[in-house]
């Protein structure tokens, strides 16, 4: 069990990565040659922007997932991608022709990486083609849209995943393993934050109609999703506060939000997010017997961590998107149980996002979460 592929399979299966600590350094080395498995998950990417490029590059190192198609509104990008990734003409679509993917037996799954507020429409379109879907975070503008996306995928009999890449990341998996095994003892507190200073004031991320919201939607979901995997519980109440230090730039969307999540056990997660300053990225979970601190915790990595026992020694960094796409390929091709990145998991986050915004609208009032 000392190949990189075995490592990927263990991560995707959720097997504790500390068990892999004895592997030779080369076992998980990013420079290891790619040996492709016989069965491949054939992926098309929809929306060829910044993140699509990162996913496509990372997939070059996948053993079980291959980039085979694109959906784009920009013909020049399609030409570039065709040449760069050897994509045949017959696997290229635009937003008007995308429904024709249903007749293409060479595409298994479409990865939606368009702006947030288009996810709902695009996931519904892909579900109607009968192809599986991966959708980037945030799933949609709100829980209502997310429920509609889940219903459309269930009706079409296709799988629906959210691009929560950290669920395949070794430090994050180790933290979850430590919490589940009881090594941390009873969880007592969580303190997570994620934000950055946003640049170009004309970008879609600052426009409500395309972004759905601001920092909370974009990166606050990492702090929130993290609070759920730090505790293994679902929040029952939310309070939130917003401040805008630059009301002109952030006229349409939220700039900086702090929010608190109350869990059934009594644990409170204190979280924050921003679009207006850097160096705001940390996960800290404290139990009666120990703690885990990840910092950086949510970006592309390398993630760094320490526990009460000292620095976390994880295998060499592999791009999260490589781990995610190989992990999903393994699950889909080998009929393995779905991980915690399904549409239903995304819905749990969107219910809390809705409650965060409701609390802010109501002056920080405590919002009790209705699970229905
Ligand atoms: P970009 O703006 O870089 O790319 C979005 C692409 O969507 C565009 O290039 C375009 O591609 C397509 N598109 C279709 N309609 C529109 C429209 N009306 N306006 C703008 N673009 C449009 O965004 P990102 O790649 O940074 O983000 C895309 C999604 O990925 C977001 O939901 C974001 O939250 C998520 N993301 C996730 C990350 C993660 O770590 N999981 C990291 C970064 C982003 P084309 O020209 O081909 O049609």
Automatic annotation (TrEMBL):
InterPro entries from the UniProt entry: Gfo/Idh/MocA-like_OxRdtase_N (IPR000683), Gfo/Idh/MocA_oxidrdct_glycsds (IPR050463), GFO_IDH_MocA-like_dom (IPR055170), Glc-Fru_OxRdtase_bac (IPR008354), NAD(P)-bd_dom_sf (IPR036291), TAT_signal (IPR006311), TAT_signal_bac_arc (IPR019546)
Alphabetically ordered keywords of this record: Oxidoreductase, Signal
Residue stretches making up the GFO/IDH/MocA-like oxidoreductase domain: 173-292
GO MF terms held by the record: nucleotide binding; oxidoreductase activity
Signal peptide (from-to): 1-27
Annotated Gfo/Idh/MocA-like oxidoreductase N-terminal domain residues: 41-164
Stated name of the protein: Gfo/Idh/MocA family oxidoreductase
């Amino acid at each position: 069990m000392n190949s990189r592929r075995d490592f990927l399979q263990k991560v995707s299966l959720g097997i504790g990565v500390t068990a892999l600590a004895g592997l030779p350094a080369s076992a998980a080395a990013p420079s290891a040659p790619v040996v492709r498995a016989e069965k491949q998950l054939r992926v098309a990417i929809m929306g060829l922007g910044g993140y699509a490029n990162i996913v496509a590059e990372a997939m070059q190192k996948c053993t079980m997932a291959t980039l085979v198609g694109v959906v784009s509104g920009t013909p020049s990008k399609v030409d570039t991608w065709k040449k760069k990734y050897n994509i045949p003409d017959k696997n290229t679509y635009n937003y008007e022709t995308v429904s024709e993917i249903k007749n293409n037996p060479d595409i298994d799954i479409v990865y939606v990486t368009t702006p947030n507020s288009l996810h709902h429409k695009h996931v519904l379109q892909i579900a109607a083609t009968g192809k599986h879907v991966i959708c980037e975070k945030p799933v949609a503008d709100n829980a209502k849209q997310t429920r509609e996306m889940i219903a459309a995928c269930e009706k079409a009999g296709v799988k629906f995943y959210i691009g929560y890449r950290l669920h395949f990341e070794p430090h994050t998996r180790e933290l979850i393993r430590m919490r589940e095994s009881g090594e941390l003892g009873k969880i007592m507190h969580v303190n997570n934050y994620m934000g950055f200073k946003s640049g170009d004031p004309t970008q879609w991320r600052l426009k409500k109609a395309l972004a759905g919201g601001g920092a909370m939607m974009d990166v606050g979901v990492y702090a929130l999703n993290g609070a759920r995997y730090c505790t293994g519980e679902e929040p029952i109440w939310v309070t939130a506060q917003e401040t805008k230090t630059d009301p002109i730039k952030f006229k349409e969307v939220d700039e900086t939000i702090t929010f608190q999540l109350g869990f059934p056990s009594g644990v409170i997660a204190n979280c924050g997010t921003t679009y207006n300053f850097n160096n705001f990225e940390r996960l800290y979970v404290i139990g009666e017997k120990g703690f885990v601190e990840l910092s950086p915790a949510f970006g592309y990595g390398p993630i760094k961590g320490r526990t009460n026992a000292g620095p976390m020694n994880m295998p060499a960094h592999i791009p999260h998107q490589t781990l995610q796409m190989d992990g999903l390929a393994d699950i889909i091709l080998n009929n393995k149980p779905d991980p915690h990145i399904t549409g239903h998991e995304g819905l749990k986050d969107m219910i809390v996002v809705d409650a965060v915004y409701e609390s802010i609208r109501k002056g920080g009032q405590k919002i009790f979460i209705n699970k229905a």
